Amino acid sequence: MSGVDLFSTLPDHVLQHVLSFLPSRNAVLSSVLSRRWRHQWRSSPALRVPGPDASTFINRFLLLRDGASPLRTFEIDVGHSSDEYADDDVDVWIRHGALTCQTLAFAASVDNPPEMLRLTSWPLAARHLTTLRLCSVSIDGDFLDLSRCPALLHLSLSKCLLDCKTIASSSLRRLILADCSFVSSAKTTTSTRIATPSLRWLHLEGPPRCLLESMPALNAATVRLLRGKGEDCGSRSVLLDALSEATSLELMASSCHGQVLILHAQVSAS
């Protein structure tokens, strides 16, 4: 079998699928393998860019790829180098990817809110999007009014700064809110309304500064409420009312006096 080119018998769409699992820089480098490989990366259904100093590469990749071949996966992780990127560029990338993608992810490793990349406030429109993951970005306005994302099933927001009145989706099945900060434009803490009536699974971790509306389809929830300075502990009962339909509930909460309560509950339908 030595020296046999097993790839030459594969159709183009299979080669492009294989390339979609590689970081996009590596996929582009495959163009030097042979004449047949020269343009395969242009039709790869994925953009995967890890690491710093990628702004120019991303812009050129999107400009040069075959527009007739839709992106299905769009993943960018800038790590600790968010200062090398412009807010407008990141916003354009996300909205461009949302046009055809099923999976869209953007992540940074930033803990200081002033250094976070900010997304523009108008709602995200993504007809095919099923999974959205955002980490360490600043989100305000109506961006998380996801009514224009009718296929969205999975939403994960981690370490984000949220200045929005509503997180709304009628299709969402799984929601992760982990270590997010809820603020208002006046820089005071506020409650964000979460309207996800079709939700089946919830993971909520952080200060309880959101109001959960009814979730009649909820099966399982993990809630870890961390007390913030000056927080009104009485507001937690309002948040927990929406979890009454869950058949599996894990709750960890710090009290107003610093104690920690851990509760595991399994509820069987009668």
From TrEMBL:
Pfam families from the UniProt entry: F-box, LRR_At5g56370
In this chain the F-box domain maps to: 7-45
InterPro entries recorded: F-box-like_dom_sf (IPR036047), F-box_AtFBL13-like (IPR053781), F-box_dom (IPR001810), F-box_SCFL_complex_component (IPR053197), LRR_dom_sf (IPR032675), LRR_FXL15/At3g58940/PEG3-like (IPR055411)
- F-box/LRR-repeat protein 15/At3g58940/PEG3-like LRR domain segment(s): 122-203
Q: What is this protein called?
A: F-box domain-containing protein
Originating species: Lolium multiflorum
